[in-house]
Design a protein that fits this description.
The protein contains 19 helices and 40 strands. By secondary structure, the chain is an alpha+beta fold.
């Protein structure tokens, strides 16, 4: 029922499910005639696809700017519930109830976020005689309040983290309680989730600051600014247990999920099962999760989150009373559609599986694709999706199979699944969460799933003139040695990128591959331009240079490109191009590219088998996204990172050294807003001397409070904006004396 490109799952999974299916086919009569999805984006689309497969009609709700969104187009009916602001649309219980009544919906699925964990909404839906596809209000209240849930968990025999069981009144009390609990501490919103309203504090000063930031974020995100404090478990693993429960007393726990790759408590990559994790620990955690679910009379899908330390001791973190963002990895390895189970439970049916039926099938990895700029501290980004093309599953399987064979193993066909709710030409708005999509791969083992993910990330085309995304960061994670070894904790990102993310650093071999690809692309474009003359482009010299970061990337390389086919036809799929270095200094090199895609077609992807020097034993596949044709080169994306690559005739390169550099910006050295948003506060005055790392201001974007700090010592010369101002990306905020 989800967006799947090509085959739906592994051949092994197909055989197992054919002989012993876990998910039932749609009944002759639908369980509900009509289902309203009280959400937007990818999760609304994902729920609707399952509902349609079950024969259930769907209703979408939307805000004014979402009138042409994919979830609206996918639904049979749609109702506008307000303006762009969530508080005036997706969070308006009264308007959603009106939509239920006017469309005759018999059930409501809340998705995740928005009203999914709002007990008042659940109660109101059921009071209207409509089924709520989720837990009862009591369970939502009990588990949604982090203070109350921790108390209930302890009473149910679940292991909990030491902390202060009460609401913190102000910053001074936060500092005092944090000292009593013992640093480091986690300062958390009682109604929190999704990484919002959470801060780590290592001393009293940080506790005071974290209290204010967390409280404001909590109020903006959840309408509840209550804060509590507990001991921070340093560098644990974040492991989740997915539950599904019915109204007949049956509760089943599914294979665990590894969610330790996080940034600011926001998950980035998830997988199932967890690497290097014992079955005994999984079963202990699963049994405790079931105890908690039964203690609160839980029904539907839910997730109990744990922290696990180096000794495999687990501690209750929280229970999410909704469908999790990362649920697809569990669906893949368990062979079950969780949304279908939720709908059936809401209709009063029993679970389709018992605990004895639960098994692991292969390995699944999910990457969260966000509109954010990893090179600027992962700040949110907005803009138009001028190009949006999810990866082709067949191409990903072929590439993963080649990679597995190079390691001495073969790879069976795997799954590449894209859960999205956007389309080419759509807008990523400042009003909502910056997630673009979830990219999921399912292979026969972890390495197969990882290779599929690499292939999929390389082929995922997302482009916009002002829009930034995190595909580069995800690609770097997939190639990280620590990640490959599966030795990950919640400290993975700060440990592996202590100075922040700087983009993919090209190895010597990768640099040559990219240079060769740019030269081949230039040669192919020249051949296409000459196609009307009846002659192919002759072998031509080029000077190629990568404009980027990293030693050696700014050097000019003299190259010759030759068409090995010599058939007089324009370069295209199947062509072999030989790119050879003609530099006088240094050792020469050559690459032969056997083109699968030329990069000049509508796909915008150059894909080639790279046949290197005679000493190279194994050919590799190179995938380069062609983002833009420049006057003297190309804007290319390779290994997840964008590069400007100049490809010019040699005499152009010789003249280029005489060009004057562009004049500096009048705002050079000023603090610029890294994203569109609202200036929440300014912490400095004109004439004030500031130190490196000192807070200058807070910018609020997408309900997150972003503290901007001084990048050097200096004296404030001018304030270009005041609190409450709406900021554009790169708008000056604070100026400094030269």
């Amino acid at each position: 029922g989800d967006r799947v490109h090509g085959a739906k799952c592994l051949a092994a999974l197909r055989r197992m499910l054919a002989s012993q299916p876990l998910t039932r086919m749609a009944a002759a009569r639908p369980l509900f005639k009509k289902l309203l999805v009280a959400n937007r984006g990818e999760i609304a689309c994902r729920v609707m696809r399952t509902a349609h497969r079950m024969g259930i009609e769907t209703v979408a709700v939307y805000s004014e700017p979402d009138s042409r969104a994919p979830h609206v187009a996918l639904a049979g009916q749609s109702v506008c519930v307000g303006s762009a602001a969530s508080a005036d649309s997706y969070l308006r219980i009264d308007r959603i109830l009106d939509a239920i009544a006017s469309t005759g919906a018999e059930a409501v699925h809340p998705g995740y976020g928005f009203l999914s964990e709002n007990a008042a909404f659940s109660e109101a839906v059921e009071a209207a005689g409509v089924a709520f596809v989720g837990p009862a209000a009591f369970a939502i209240n009990a588990m949604g309040d982090k203070i109350e849930s921790k108390r209930l968990a302890a009473e149910a025999g679940v292991t909990t983290i030491p902390g202060f069981e009460g609401v913190i009144a102000d910053a001074d009390e936060a500092a005092r309680v944090a000292s009593e609990v013992g640093f480091p501490v986690m300062i958390k919103a009682s109604a929190g989730g999704g990484g919002k309203g959470m801060r780590i504090a290592w001393d009293e000063a940080e506790a005071r600051q974290a209290f204010g930031l967390s409280q404001r974020e909590a109020a903006a995100s959840f309408g509840d600014d209550r804060i509590f404090i507990e001991r921070y478990v340093e560098k644990p693993r974040h492991i989740e247990i997915q539950l599904i429960a019915d109204t007949h007393g049956n509760v089943v726990y599914l294979p665990e999920r590894e969610c330790s790759v996080q940034r600011r408590n926001q998950k980035v990559v998830e997988e199932a099962p967890a690497p290097h994790f014992s079955e005994a620990t999984w079963r202990r955690m699963g049994e405790e999760a079931v105890q908690l679910a039964k203690a609160v009379g839980y029904r539907s899908a839910g997730t109990v989150e744990f922290l696990v330390d180096a000794r495999d001791q687990h501690y209750f973190l929280e229970m999410n009373t909704r469908l999790q963002v990362e649920h697809p990895v569990t669906e893949c390895v368990a062979g079950i559609d969780l949304v279908e189970e939720m709908i059936r439970v809401a209709a009063g049916e029993k679970l389709s599986i018992a605990q004895a039926d639960v098994r692991r099938i292969g390995w699944a990895i999910e990457s969260r694709v966000y509109a954010e700029d990893p090179l600027r501290g992962f700040l949110p980004s907005i803009g138009t999706l001028s190009a949006y093309r999810p990866p082709d599953e067949a191409a990903c399987n072929k590439a993963a199979d080649l990679a597995m064979r190079a390691e001495g193993e073969g790879g069976e066909g795997g799954l590449v699944r894209v859960d999205d709710g956007c389309a080419e030409g759509g807008e990523i708005s400042v009003h909502y969460d910056p997630m673009i999509a979830k990219l999921i791969t399912h292979g026969r083992d972890r390495e197969h799933a990882r290779q599929l993910m690499i292939a999929a990330l390389d082929r995922y085309v997302i482009h916009g003139s002002a829009l930034r995304h995190n595909l580069n960061f995800l690609r770097t994670i997939m190639g990280n040695d620590t990640f490959i070894a599966g030795k990950i904790t919640t400290g993975f990102i700060p440990d592996q990128f202590p100075d922040g993310y700087r983009g993919h650093q090209l190895s010597a071999s990768e640099r040559i591959d990219l240079i060769a690809a740019a030269a081949a692309l230039e040669h192919a474009a020249a051949g296409q331009a000459n196609s009307g003359s009846g002659t192919a482009a002759a072998a031509a010299p080029y000077s190629v240079r990568i404009e980027g970061v990293g030693e050696g990337e700014g050097d000019d390389h003299s190259l010759a490109v030759m068409d090995e086919d010599c058939d007089g036809l324009p370069v295209g799929p199947g062509s072999e191009l030989r790119v050879a270095s003609t530099d006088d200094a240094g050792e020469g090199w050559s690459r032969t590219l056997r083109l699968v895609q030329s990069g000049l077609g509508p796909s915008g992807i150059l894909e080639a088998e790279m046949l290197g020097d005679a000493s190279d034993a194994t050919p590799a596949t190179l995938v380069v996204q062609v983002q833009e044709r420049l006057p003297l080169g190309w804007r290319l994306c390779a290994f997840g990172t964008s590069f400007t690559v100049l490809a010019r005739p040699p005499h152009y390169a010789a003249l280029g050294v005489h060009m004057k550099p562009p004049p500096p910006s009048p705002f050079a050295g000023s603090l610029l807003s890294p994203m569109p948003g609202t200036l929440h506060s300014v912490a400095v005055e004109v004439g004030e001397r500031v130190a490196l790392g000192q807070e200058l201001c807070v910018v609020e974007a997408m309900k997150m409070q972003n503290v901007l700090v001084a990048e050097r010592d200096g004296v404030v010369s001018e304030l270009y904006a005041t609190p409450g101002d709406t900021l554009a990306a790169d708008q000056p905020i604070v100026g400094f004396e030269k």
